[in-house]
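Posting for a labmate who doesn't have an account.
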Amino acid sequence: MTATLVLLRHGESTANADGLFTGWTDVPLTPRGQEQALAAGQLLRASGLRPDSVHTSVLRRTITTADLVLSVLGRDWIEVHRTWRLNERHYGALTGLNKKEVRARTDEATYRAWRRSWATPPPAAHPGDLPPWNDPRYAGLPPDAWPLTESLRDVTARLLPCWNDRVVPELLAGRVPMVIAHGNSLRALVAHLDRLRPDEVENLNIPTGQPLVYELDDFFAPVRPGGRYLDPETAADEASAVGRQ
């Protein structure tokens, strides 16, 4: 028997629209992002997919996306689990900076490594700067878990406990979990599912607002590597736009 997993990157945020490194900064969806979330719900409804649970980060762009998707599906009542482990990658000292401006003053290889590589983190933030240390959503986070910057490898390490302890048991129980997260936390999860090499991860782009469905075998390996987007043409266009950033 196969298990079904739905992945969704949140709709366009204000920081996406402005071309900023967002990371753990909490920003809302744009009107276009809200429309993307509603459209994602319509795609799921048309496909007959009905998630039994939702997992989001603690950032409002995923929370709002989840609310809008579930409203379309009429499944506002299902179990929702929120965790910092699904947060976007922490961009360290780049947080809040304009991507084009950073690229203009950085050599191409360094910029690409910060943006796309598996193991190279951006420059670290100063302790106490980012995110707000008094934010109540992180009150229970142990001090050694606070990131000052993260590579994609770091994101994978803090994401996997959520995958193993929360999502996998639901798949084993025959439920359909939906993970609504961010470009890099989903890149990390897809890389784990598809067993991607570091060079393959560099070319992996996750588009906003496009449901990605994985059918997994008994060993949680994809029946179809890369999964399938419910709207493959739009997803390809959006992924290309992400790659050009």
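Reply:
Got it, the structure tokens are right above this. The first strand starts at residue 3 and ends at 9.
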